Amino acid sequence: QCFLDMTFGAGGHTTALLEKASDITIYALDRDPTAYKIARQLSESYPKQIRALLGQFSQSEALLTSSGVEPGTLDGVLLDAGCSSMQFDTPERGFSLQKDGPLDMRMDSDRYPDMPTAADVVNALDQQALASILRTYGEERHAKKIASAIVQARSIYPITRTQQLASIVAGAFPASALYARKDLLQRSTHVATKTFQGLRIFVNDELHELFIGLKTAEKFLKPGGRLVTLSFHSLEDRIIKRFLHGINMTEKYNLGSRQKIRQALKNCSKDDTQELPHGKSKWIFIQKKVLTPQAKDIQTNPRGRSAKLRAAIKV
After folding, report:
1. Which of 40, 116, 168, 274 has a CB 3.0–4.6 Å from the CB of 120, allowing a cystine?
2. Edge-to-edge strand ranges of the sheet holding 50-54
3. Taking the domain 2-85+205-314, which CATH number applies?
4. What is the DSSP string of 157-168?
């Protein structure tokens, strides 16, 4: 059997697959050079089973083809969207507001020197564009207020550090609001959390990449092959849900540009249980309802509290 792990990360899913079945080949893809290095190291222990690939979802088709994988031949694809724990836990990568680091947020690290960092975004874009990013990708209700605070602060000094940005966002709110927001575990979350999410998604073009990744998975899976997706916020899950239901996202809901993503997302259902318009789905759902973590899972891995798992079989 042949599988594609589209988000290798630290290798947890790939290792679990190898433990379940040793007679498989896994193409381990990641856009992060650090993850790719780990995949290469693991492939030394499993030389016949792991093929490490470095690239974005939008590069995966070319990478698979150059590795000799033909369309319609994969038995399974796993796609774990978003940022990895490894990236969050490395302050130098600039993803987390909990520890100070350079305001970077590029999943590709330094592979593309011309790719803008989060610092480039907050220091260069005008107030309206910043507010649009925070509202669209961070689902931040106070996007205008935060964007205004960022523009005011950068007129005095450049914004280059994660905790510097977190302090600027916090300064736009009264002290009582700093940790007033709650997560799904009813734990207090910093008021800048959604700002960081919005910037990260924008910098890495995550929603466009996700859609291309889903299309690639569909193309390379064989009939009867299985696709398993994990998403961690509503923007990702809406795209996955629409894709699996066969709703046209190439014309009115074209995800080929960030501008049109915004249009698509405005028309997506915010209610996961709301009935979607019928499309020509190419998938059979393994379970009717989306799977979410149980209490024991959340205790073991609190970061997975918002995870949504969808699994489908290609027709």
Report:
1. 116
2. 50-54, 25-30, 2-5, 74-80, 221-231, 308-314, 283-285
3. 3.40.50.150
4. S---BHHHHHHH
pTM of the predicted model, to two decimals?
A: 0.86
Fold of domain 109-203: DNA polymerase; domain 1 (1.10.150)
How many angstroms separate the CA atoms of 137 and 145, rounded?
Answer: 16
Q: Give the tens place of pLDDT for each residue, 245-278.
A: 998 765 444 444 354 444 444 444 444 433 444 5
H or E element that contains 258: helix 258-266
- The full set of domain ranges for the chain reads 2-85+205-314, 109-203
Element (H, E) at 29: strand 25-30
- Rounded CA-CA distance 93/11 in Å is 19
Cα atoms in the 13 Å half-sphere on the side-chain side of 244: 25
